[in-house]
TrEMBL record:
<keyword id="KW-0479">Metal-binding</keyword>
<dbReference type="GO" id="GO:0008270">
    <property type="term" value="F:zinc ion binding"/>
</dbReference>
<dbReference type="InterPro" id="IPR016161">
    <property type="entry name" value="Ald_DH/histidinol_DH"/>
</dbReference>
<dbReference type="GO" id="GO:0000105">
    <property type="term" value="P:L-histidine biosynthetic process"/>
</dbReference>
<feature type="binding site">
    <location>
        <position position="419"/>
    </location>
    <ligand>
        <name>substrate</name>
    </ligand>
</feature>
<comment type="function">
    <text>Catalyzes the sequential NAD-dependent oxidations of L-histidinol to L-histidinaldehyde and then to L-histidine.</text>
</comment>
<dbReference type="InterPro" id="IPR022695">
    <property type="entry name" value="Histidinol_DH_monofunct"/>
</dbReference>
<keyword id="KW-0028">Amino-acid biosynthesis</keyword>
<feature type="binding site">
    <location>
        <position position="258"/>
    </location>
    <ligand>
        <name>Zn(2+)</name>
    </ligand>
</feature>
<feature type="binding site">
    <location>
        <position position="261"/>
    </location>
    <ligand>
        <name>Zn(2+)</name>
    </ligand>
</feature>
<feature type="active site" description="Proton acceptor">
    <location>
        <position position="327"/>
    </location>
</feature>
<feature type="binding site">
    <location>
        <position position="258"/>
    </location>
    <ligand>
        <name>substrate</name>
    </ligand>
</feature>
<dbReference type="InterPro" id="IPR012131">
    <property type="entry name" value="Hstdl_DH"/>
</dbReference>
<feature type="binding site">
    <location>
        <position position="327"/>
    </location>
    <ligand>
        <name>substrate</name>
    </ligand>
</feature>
<feature type="binding site">
    <location>
        <position position="236"/>
    </location>
    <ligand>
        <name>substrate</name>
    </ligand>
</feature>
<keyword id="KW-0560">Oxidoreductase</keyword>
<feature type="binding site">
    <location>
        <position position="419"/>
    </location>
    <ligand>
        <name>Zn(2+)</name>
    </ligand>
</feature>
């Protein structure tokens, strides 16, 4: 794991951004071809791509009720400890998301005027759940439950099948616990296209949410506008700000917990202590061989792992805000005060015992978070992502006539005389109903 000073890291960032942009552009041609094929040929194309990319020769994309129930019962009876853990996590997520649910409002700034906001849940949402290198029942809980709390009528899941055509029973169990209404055996860009435009099997949705690989991310970018999306998620990221009051083993373990996601995951430690940086580096090397996903972790750490030494806390916080990390751990002394200085982060974990996996699995706040610096303008997935807002405006006859000249003046200034006329005709004829 590289140890860099502040200036060297900043120089490297520019080069990395250029390389990432080139890689994304190279993917677009393949992704657009997949999207067009699914648009034109529906299930036929979706099944063909599932065979090509997932090596699963299936004849139906839908998970049957029997398959779903069998999976649920097998986990409930065969792995009761896991079932209980999923249920407990789901309840924490549900409680947290209920606190974030917005309500509409009405108010009257003066007699004869009623203004407000009407909040309505989306009709149908698609949740993408990754497969491949790992199984993600936690993503099912995190992404489905907020939609259910919001009141979405249909919440469907797409996830890539295993080569034998089955899905992980734990994922199916989580889907039932969370309240999903359907599950489909399809992943990759083809799943995004199917959700965006609909096929014979999959319903067209209003919004697509959930993390995925580079193909999924680029596909979401290209269908945006025809359908809403939550975000264009990149590889997982963690940034830990620590000092010598924190055991280096804690920092190393937390960094490695994100490195095991994939080879392109990013793990960063920020510190103001050069000696401590070396201790963390040694601890990372000690722990890697002890972990099951050693090969993935080692490649991730070698490519994207960094320990950055800053001059002082002020520079460290400035660096953290420029990174805008998906996960930020403030682990050392003064962590609670440092929170107020952080402007950009997806989720902030405070203190040495608020380990990032706590947020991934159990605490309640969502683990679908903005990546690639988009925490500068984006938020974690939540109930608000599954609701839309309508303004409500009601003026009585008297109030409209009070302000008619003001509105006409502004409309005339813009040269939109038909706008002005819509108000003027009511003023001059004076027959507007209240």
């Amino acid at each position: 794991m590289q140890i860099l000073d502040y200036e060297t890291y900043q120089q490297n960032v520019t080069n990395t951004a250029k390389a990432t942009q080139m890689m994304q552009q190279n993917l677009d041609e393949q992704v657009l071809e997949i999207i067009r094929a699914v648009q034109e040929r529906g299930d036929e194309a979706a099944l063909a791509y599932t065979k090509k990319f997932d090596k699963a020769a299936i004849t139906s994309l839908s998970v049957s009720e029997k398959e779903w129930n069998n999976a649920f019962n097998s986990i409930k009876t065969g792995q009761p400890k896991l079932f209980k853990a999923l249920t407990a996590a789901a309840e924490n997520i549900r409680q947290y998301q209920k606190k974030t649910k917005e309500e509409g409002f009405q108010f009257s700034p003066q007699p004869g005027i009623q203004l407000g906001q009407k909040i309505t849940p989306l009709n149908r949402v698609g949740v993408y759940v990754p497969g491949g290198k790992a199984s993600y029942p936690s993503t099912v809980l995190m992404d489905v439950i907020p939609a259910v709390v919001a009141g979405v009528d249909q919440v469907v899941i797409t996830t890539p099948p295993r080569p034998d055509g089955s899905l992980d029973p734990v994922v199916l169990t989580a889907a039932k616990i969370a309240g999903a209404t359907g599950v489909y055996k399809i992943g990759g860009a083809q799943a995004v296209a199917a959700l965006a435009y609909g096929t014979e099997s999959l319903p067209k949705v209003d919004k697509i949410v959930g993390p995925g690989n580079a193909f999924v991310a680029r596909a979401k970018k290209w269908v945006f506008g025809d359908v809403a999306i939550d975000m264009i998620a990149g590889p997982s990221e963690i940034c830990a700000f620590a000092d010598n009051t924190v055991p280096p083993s804690y920092v190393a373990a937390d960094l490695l917990s994100q490195a095991e996601h994939a080879e392109d995951a990013t793990s960063i430690c920020v510190t103001t202590d050069a000696d401590y940086a070396e201790e963390v580096q040694k601890e990372i090397e000690r722990q890697i061989p002890l972990l099951e996903r050693e090969e993935i972790i080692r490649e991730s750490i070698q490519a994207n792992g960094k320990i950055i030494i800053c001059d002082d806390e002020e520079q460290a916080i400035e660096l953290i805000n420029s990174i805008a990390p998906e996960h930020l751990q403030l682990m050392g002394e003064g962590a609670e005060e440092q929170v107020q200085k952080v402007k950009h982060a997806g989720a902030i974990f405070i203190g040495p015992y608020s380990s990032e996996p706590l947020g991934d699995y159990f605490a309640g706040p969502n683990h679908t978070l903005p990546t690639n610096g988009t925490a500068r303008f984006s938020s974690p997935l939540g109930v608000y992502d599954f609701m839309k807002k309508s303004s409500t405006i009601h003026y009585s006859k008297e109030r409209l006539l009070d302000y008619a000249d003001t509105i006409i003046t502004i409309a005339d200034a813009e040269g939109l005389t038909a706008h002005a006329n819509a108000i003027r005709i009511r003023k001059e004829n004076n027959y507007a109903s209240s």
